[in-house]
Design a protein that fits this description.
Blueprint lengths: L4 E2 L9 H10 L18 H18 L5 E6 L2 H13 L5 E6 L2 H10 L4 E7 L23 E3 L2 E2 L4 E2 L11 E4 L16 E5 L10 E6 L16 H6 L9 H16 L2 H22 L3 E2 L11 E6 L5 H10 L2 E2 L10 E4 L6 H18 L1
Parallel strand pairs: 1-13, 3-4, 3-5, 5-8, 8-9
Antiparallel strand pairs: 2-10, 6-7, 9-10, 11-12, 12-14
The structure holds pyridoxal-5'-phosphate (PLP).
The site of pyridoxal-5'-phosphate (PLP) has 11 residues, from helix 3.
Length: 360
Amino acid sequence: MSRVYNFSAGPAVLPLEVLERIREDIPDWNGSGMSVMEVSHRGKAFMAVAEKAEQDVRDLLAIPDDYSVLFLQGGATLQFAMAPLNLTRVGDTVDYVQTGSWSRKAIAEASRFCDVNIAADSSDTNFCHIPPEHEWQRTANAAYLHYTPNETIGGVEFHFIPESGGVPLVADMSSTILSRPIDVSRFGVIYAGAQKNIGPAGITLVIVRNDLLDRQRADAPTLLTYKAFADSGSMTNTPPTFAWYAAGLVFEHLKARGGIAAVAEINERKATKLYKVIDDSDFYSNPVQANCRSWMNVPFVLRDSGLDAKFLGESASAGLMNLKGHRSVGGMRASIYNAMTEDGVDALIGFMQEFEKANG
Ligand SMILES: Cc1ncc(COP(=O)(O)O)c(C=O)c1O
């Protein structure tokens, strides 16, 4: 077997231990003679998986009891619509912080359902900073405040939780969830597509404070309400059982690694050493302000973009895959989620230094 180091932004690398366990489980899961994909979601065996996954993620993130944990479909993009559908009435105003491509998309979708006030916007620096909180232009009676704790494309991360002042705080944590401890009690709704730090694509984690479960619009389709999923244990209809099972294995794996605090320490170390190599060279650069650089997605450009294709070709030959930056930013992007080992980051750093020597 030869595994590469996969720096994809998502779907992203999964822990090898989890993949091996899935391979072992598939033909004959739990001695059932069937795979987990072939059993009823309402049967005892799968219900146990579902409940354990929920409990494990509750333990990992220390989710308070007055929050529901939902396993939905539709990805984070559907949450761009579900948040306003579940938390606003027609004519309400919501506050959004625009710090990159994903918050911009969230704003465009929310604008279809209510009035969006862009409370802060960093497009003037090409999304390379986070406007200081005291400059945010908030609405007096906003139905909620939405932000994107980690912008996957720009590599911009909030290293603080905004002060929402009593308004429900809604966060798209798709590319940062489970990477560091968070105080869930500061949030009204947290949502995250799975395909970075949770598991395979196809399942979406939503954590919602229970007092917000009754605000949905009367005409919202059942499957677009948090309430229906909270009331049914996320079994309103057939859930994505395989993805739920695999997410459960990732949660188990994270617990075995010592939990989120232990994982965060490694994540910070991985990111710090990669940024240091970039900052110490004048061959590579990262445009993001130092106080908001992402631990998960590290974009960087080469001084001479004419070398991009060579960099990508040689890095791929060295087993360092999917380093091409997003088309809107150019250059490179190394996504170094929980499952990217420190060895992988060290290998990337070694390659970058050799490449600079040869071409700088
Ligand atoms: C921060 C963020 N939000 C939303 C999305 C969209 O997620 P999905 O494809 O699950 O809808 C992504 C995908 O990469 C993302 O990184």
